[in-house]
Design goal:
The chain is of the alpha+beta class and 406 residues long. Helices cover 56% and strands 18% of the residues. The protein contains 13 helices and ten strands. α3 crosses α8 and α11 runs antiparallel to α12.
């Protein structure tokens, strides 16, 4: 019997017991759908990050303070400062648009309305290393920083929450950070950006103010949270990152272990490593459903072998070999799981699309083609694995005993 003839026989057998066949497939359907939905969440988040990276450009590099837990109380190094930024500007010619920034949680208030925001102290160079754009008004200037000017640029959601349909330009808000309450004049607001990836604050929920204003008027500190720069055209970002790292190492030889300098591509690779772990864990959860479905397939196939004992005896009596019987029942098992896998892939796509449509800003979903291929292939493999024992049992039946079976 050929492989395609075995599939035809398998389909006939499945159609003869439609309800039982569907219930047998159900575990596989649920398992494949669950795996596809979980992968869609992870890949959707990755797509959002990649989109952000592409919007900012591919030649960015980052430096930030990330103290090792065991070293947090050792030494006097407590983070990057403006002196580090100035040193990079003087000594590294392979980077431009060097933009230090510092983020702090805060609360914005206007006429009794309150809204929790992320306060970002920055310089005008921030526009050169991010994709944010000013919708109306102006951005921060160097003069604002030199005079500790009490001005700010607000995100789209901050504008809507505090001002509604009013024009915020020229009006004041109060910003509270670390117990300090300072009035700020709104000189501009940003274009709508959308939700940040992986829970990161969106520019829509930010209040941008001069870095020195945040340091002096609110925190009393000269620290910066991180430095973002852009490699000049023609220079490999990795080479530029190495030069920045060398400068920081000279300035902080004892604290260099707590400083991370990386490129956009490097951060994406780190992200992929984390996402791979998440996909394996989440895929394992969905795989349990496939395992249960496989056990169900084995159980039904054993029942099918018992029910069709006389059929097996007749086929052997007219010349069917053991391998023909083996192929027939393994193919039937793979057909059951394969059909369940196809239905599961379809449901997984539909569920991922429906979930992503509910709240496109918060629930980013994306199902790559490899996920569908993997889900279907794994379903077929489960059917083959759990169908082997019933098929072997059927192929070993004695034709005389099988013919006598009632």
């Amino acid at each position: 019997m050929s492989f395609w003839e075995s599939i035809r026989v398998a389909l006939v057998a499945l159609m003869a017991n439609k309800l039982r066949s569907f219930l047998t497939m159900l575990g596989v359907i649920i398992g494949v759908s669950a795996v596809m939905i979980m992968i869609s969440f992870v890949q959707g988040s990755r797509q959002q990050v990649v989109k952000e990276f592409q919007g900012d450009g591919a030649n960015l590099l980052f430096a930030f303070y990330a103290p090792k837990r065991e070293r947090q109380k050792v030494g006097t190094f407590d983070g990057l400062k403006m002196t580090d930024v100035q040193a990079i500007r003087r000594r590294v010619g392979s980077v431009s648009d060097i933009s230090p920034s510092l983020e702090q949680a805060g609360k914005s208030i206007r006429n009794g309305k309150e809204f929790n925001v992320t306060s970002v102290g920055c310089l005008p160079d921030l526009l050169g290393v991010t994709s944010i754009k000013v919708a109306e008004g102006r951005f921060l200037t160097m003069e604002d920083g030199e005079t500790w000017n009490k001005v700010c640029v607000i995100g789209d959601k901050v504008r809507k929450e505090l001002f509604g349909k009013e024009n915020p330009l020229g009006q004041e808000i109060e910003l509270i950070i670390s117990g300090q309450r300072v009035p700020l004049l709104v000189v501009g607001y940003l274009e709508y950006k959308g939700k940040g990836a992986f829970g990161q604050p969106s520019p829509d929920e930010q209040v941008l103010l001069p870095l020195v204003t945040l340091q002096k008027r609110f925190l009393g500190s000269e620290s910066v949270g991180g430095i973002t720069a852009r490699a000049v055209p023609g220079v490999d970002p990795e080479t530029a990152a190495d030069e920045v790292f060398a400068v920081l190492k000279q300035m902080h030889p004892d604290g260099i272990r707590d400083i991370v300098v990386d490129t956009q591509e490097g951060l994406l690779q780190r992200l992929d490593s984390v996402l791979l772990l998440f996909q394996v864990i989440l895929g394992g959860v969905g795989g349990l459903s496939l395992l249960v479905g496989g056990i169900g397939i084995m159980n039904i196939m054993l029942v099918s072998v018992t029910e069709r004992t006389r059929e097996i005896g007749i086929r052997k009596a007219v010349g069917a070999k053991r391998r023909d019987i083996l192929l027939q029942f393994v193919t039937e098992s793979m057909t059951v799981s394969g059909l369940g896998g196809l239905i599961g892939v379809g449901l997984g796509y539909a569920a991922a699309y429906a979930i992503g449509s509910v709240d496109p800003e918060r629930l980013k979903t994306f199902v790559p083609a490899w996920a569908a291929i993997m889900g279907f292939s794994f379903a077929v493999a489960v059917g083959m694995f759990f169908g082997i024992y019933p098929a072997v049992r059927a192929s070993r039946l004695d034709p005389i005993d099988a013919l006598r079976y009632e």
